[in-house]
């Protein structure tokens, strides 16, 4: 009888997995993306000027969204205006941005040898033929005049413009920095030589990884909480978290090195489906089954691709690729452990209570499942 019940349990898990994965795969091609990603700025000296080429969607700036405060444009009060700008033809959007440029220029901080200079726009290119539900990365070119004998520069911009990845070009040992919203770069020598050491890159990318869990990684937070609410002891929880960590470490490394590439239109709905799966399984099965770590490992591979898509947007410093990648991954793990610690502090005291599952674990898992199912729909149909 026990064997038959075990087979029935495995069958229900398999069916549940097939259903959730099939929904995500069938709808994956229609996925929408609204996540706020860093702007990428390449900086290079050209004679008596310092030229910048910035790759970023410009609609958020023109709409007035505080990109440093939100992780998703849909969460901003200006979301409707943002969507209207996304629907404009490229030439119309370019005109809107040029009208906005004087305001933006005043909020870009460029200090040459400590003295502020005002940037001047050279051009803006907004691509056409992009699905309105997807971000539309534009190319903005501007420059700052360099006085004779200029030796160094510092760069940053208003916190409302969001995170800026700044990469120096055309010199030996170039500077490469990840500037949180509103941060000003270190002093950068125009002649080069400010490339971060391996240790500096390692340390610098730990908070970047942590930031992509807390506060920006709500989907990963909910998945980890889904693992937490099936456990009433640290042993089963450790098995699940270890499987998840190992899996996303593997795919994060492979994707960051260029060996694996899966479109976000497929990965993001599947991540949402994984959240719904573990939460629904928590409701259907009161104890950790032998297949749970295997299932969690498979979903961890997906989440690793999700982390890799974030890294792919701004890359890792070429001279310290491996240390930066390790630092990013450690930051992710610290973020996950922080989520588990917070959950344990909140409800861990009730693990041994006979009503814990009925009063806390099942309702919490139901809420997580509903969010995951909604995200599958949102990331595919909306």
TrEMBL record:
TM ranges: 14-33, 221-239, 251-278, 290-312, 324-347, 359-377
InterPro entries: Put_HupE_UreJ
Taxonomy of the source species: Bacteria, Pseudomonadati, Pseudomonadota, Alphaproteobacteria, Rhodobacterales
Protein name: HupE / UreJ protein
Pfam family membership, one: HupE_UreJ_2
Keyword Membrane among record annotations: yes
Organism this protein belongs to: Limimaricola cinnabarinus
This protein's record includes keyword Membrane: yes
Keywords for this protein: Membrane, Transmembrane, Transmembrane helix
């Amino acid at each position: 009888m026990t064997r038959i019940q075990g087979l029935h349990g495995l069958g229900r898990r398999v069916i549940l997995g097939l259903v959730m994965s099939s929904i995500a795969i069938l709808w994956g091609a229609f996925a929408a993306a609204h996540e706020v990603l860093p702007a990428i700025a390449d900086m290079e000296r050209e004679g008596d000027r310092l030229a910048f080429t910035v790759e970023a969607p410009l609609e958020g700036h023109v709409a007035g969204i505080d990109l440093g405060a939100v992780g998703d444009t849909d969460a901003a009060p200006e979301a409707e205006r943002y969507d209207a700008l996304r629907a404009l033809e490229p030439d119309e959007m370019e005109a809107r941005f040029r009208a906005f440029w004087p305001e933006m220029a005043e909020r870009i901080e460029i200090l040459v040898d400590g003295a502020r200079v005002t940037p001047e726009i050279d051009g803006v290119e907004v691509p056409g033929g992009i699905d309105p539900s997807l971000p539309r990365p534009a190319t903005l070119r501007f420059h700052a005049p360099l006085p004779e004998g200029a030796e160094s520069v510092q760069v940053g911009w208003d916190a409302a413009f969001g995170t800026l990845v700044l990469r120096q070009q055309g010199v030996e040992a170039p500077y490469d920095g990840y500037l949180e919203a509103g941060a000003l770069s270190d002093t950068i020598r125009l002649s080069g030589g400010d490339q971060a050491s391996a240790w500096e890159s390692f340390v610098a990318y730990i908070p970047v990884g942590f930031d992509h869990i807390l506060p920006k990684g709500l989907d990963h937070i909910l998945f980890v909480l889904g693992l937490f609410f099936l456990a009433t002891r640290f042993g089963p929880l450790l098995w699940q978290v270890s499987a998840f960590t190992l899996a996303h470490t593997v795919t994060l490394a492979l994707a960051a090195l260029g060996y694996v590439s899966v479109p976000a239109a497929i990965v993001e709905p599947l991540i949402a489906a994984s959240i719904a799966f573990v939460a629904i399984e928590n409701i259907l099965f009161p104890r950790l089954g032998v297949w749970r770590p295997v299932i969690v490992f498979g979903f961890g591979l997906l989440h690793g691709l999700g982390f890799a898509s974030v890294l792919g947007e701004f890359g890792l410093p070429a001279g310290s690729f491996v240390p930066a990648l390790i630092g990013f991954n450690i930051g992710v793990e610290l973020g996950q452990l922080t989520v588990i610690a917070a959950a344990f502090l909140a409800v861990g005291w009730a693990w041994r209570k006979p009503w814990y599952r009925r009063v806390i674990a099942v309702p919490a898992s139901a809420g997580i499942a509903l969010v995951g199912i909604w995200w599958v729909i949102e990331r595919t149909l909306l």
